[in-house]
Structure formats: structure tokens, C-alpha cells
Amino acid sequence: GTFNSFGLSLLVVHFLQTVEILPRLSENTIQLRGDARRAPNAPAHTAPARVLGDCDGITVQHHTHEQLRGWGSENTSGVAVLAHEFFKYFARDFDWDKHIVSVTARGLLPKSSVVFHQGQNTCLCIQDPLDQSDNCARSVGQGAFQRISHEFERAYSLEVSSLLQEARSAATRPTEQQREVIHQEERRRKQEAKMMKKSKQLVEAQEAETLAASEAVHYGGGASPRGQEARHGIND
Predict the structure, then answer these.
(1) Smallest Cα–Cα separation from 159: which of 93, 82, 77?
(2) CA 200, CA 55: separation in Å to the nearest integer?
(3) What CA–CA distances, in Å, run from 110 to 86, 98, 113, 128?
(4) Cys bridge to 209: 81, 132, 192, 230, which one at CB 3.0-4.6 A?
């Protein structure tokens, strides 16, 4: 399993909230940087958000264009920079083992604070804003989680490589400090690639052995050839 389109949309919304381009969906008074100031260009006496109704205990509100005017205006980053920061955030900054992607909570939401519906995978958690016990990434198992983490890291690395290429194309000579950062990044990437490969092999071997266990009955209760191959793969 992997992300569905709704889950991917929530990832983007969550990231844009962390860089204060979008407000939290639970706020009925638009605030900037968590204080009591309204958006810079908002009218002095903006009416509160109009309540459309309730859905499973969640109040659905409508913000008008006037209420949202000026929100995120302090952001000066272009799409390319935001894409780079998006991959960096989910590859390096966001701790999938400890936190949940939420578009309603203020700050990071701990996994321990939410009980998801029984039987749902919680390797990677994206909270449904209209059913907060529903994990929109419930189809992502451990193996898929490893692959997704690898792709986030790979996308971020490609972005770094692209930026370095742009610097070379512009004939800009990096400083000694910049060269050291580049060397450290290259060493780190090589080390993480080795660890990711080993982790992927272990997950694949475990999945193969689990499948082999279900076939063992055909071999008189002993290990099937598939299980023996899986164990050999781990030992190798």
C-alpha cells in the first residue's frame, strides 16, 4: 500500500502550515505566527468565520477572501524552494515514529495522543481532519513505509544535487565552509544509502519468511525451501 490522493493533499497542507502560508483548519480567528494579530491587510473589524455545520464533532467553518487576505504574505519563497523544503521536512525533520501529520492540531501531534480505528497500520500516520481516529495512510505497512522514507530522502538528495549543479552552472566557486558542507552531505548520503539497502533487504527477507511459514504445512511442518532461502538471505 501507499498514500492515497487525500493523504498526499494533507501532507502538502500540513507542510504549508508549518511555514505559515496556510492557517490551521481549526482556527476560527485567523492569526499570524500564533499571536493575536490579524493578517496584515485584513479589515479592522472582520466578522468571525461562518459556521457551516458539524461533522462527527468537528465544526466546519468558512473563511471569506477578506478574512484570509494577507495570510502568508510574509513568505517570499518560490515554488522551487518550497518543494526543496517540503522534501527536507519529511525526510529529515518530521519524526514519523513519534508524530502524526495533522492539519488541525497546533504544533506537532504525538502518536501517543491518538487512538486510531482498530486494525489500522500506524507505521505512518496522517490524521483525517473529519474523523480524527482515521489514519489516511492506514494501507502503508512496514515495507511500504521503508520505501516511502527512502523516496523522500532520494527526492531531497536530488534537490540538493540540483542546487549544487545550478551553483556550478553559474560559475560560482564554493567557499571552504561550503565545500566542507558538501563533503559531509555526500558522506552522509553514502552511509544512509548503505543502511537503507540493508534495512530494505531485512524487511524483504522477513516478508518472504512470513509467506514461507504459511506454506510449511505442505512440507510436513518443516521449513519450506522459501523459508530456508529467506534465512540464508538474512545471514548473508
Answers:
(1) 82
(2) 41
(3) 20, 6, 6, 15
(4) 230
Cell of 174: 564554493
* CB-based contact 138:114 (threshold 8 Å): no
Q: Are strands 50-55 and 127-128 parallel, antiparallel or unpaired?
A: unpaired
> Burial level of 11, CB count in 10 A (0-12/13-18/19+)?
buried
Residues 196 and 150: beta-carbon distance below 8 Å: yes
Q: How confident is the model over 31-65, as pLDDT tens digits?
A: 433 333 344 444 444 555 666 566 555 566 666 66
pTM, whole model, 2 decimals? Answer: 0.59
Cell for 80? 522551487
Residue 208 grid coordinates = 518472504
Determine the 3-state secondary structure of 58 from DSSP: strand
Does residue 147 register a pLDDT over 50?
yes
Please give the grid coordinates belonging to residue 48.
468571525
Compute φ and ψ for 51, nearest 5 degrees. Answer: -80, 120
